[in-house]
Amino acid sequence: MADRYLTVAQVAELLGTTERFPRRLIAERRIVFVKVGRHVRIPESALNAFIDANTVQAIGHRRSSLGRAA
């Protein structure tokens, strides 16, 4: 299956950020990208991998060991 290549603006929209954030990820080499001439594209699979790698799972509900006051 062919991968979609997203522009910086599309990535920013999907992440709900400004374009500055994906550009910083590119500059810091924290996300895979492709240069097409002077244009930069981010494979959709790379964006999904970035999101998966930075997803923090919730901690299950823990009961307090102190109990309730009377």
From TrEMBL:
Pfam families (UniProt xref): HTH_17 (PF12728)
Helix-turn-helix domain residues: 5-54
InterPro entries xrefs: DNA-bd_dom_put_sf (IPR009061), HTH_17 (IPR041657), SinI_DNA-bd (IPR010093)
GO-annotated molecular function: DNA binding
Designated name of the protein: Helix-turn-helix domain-containing protein
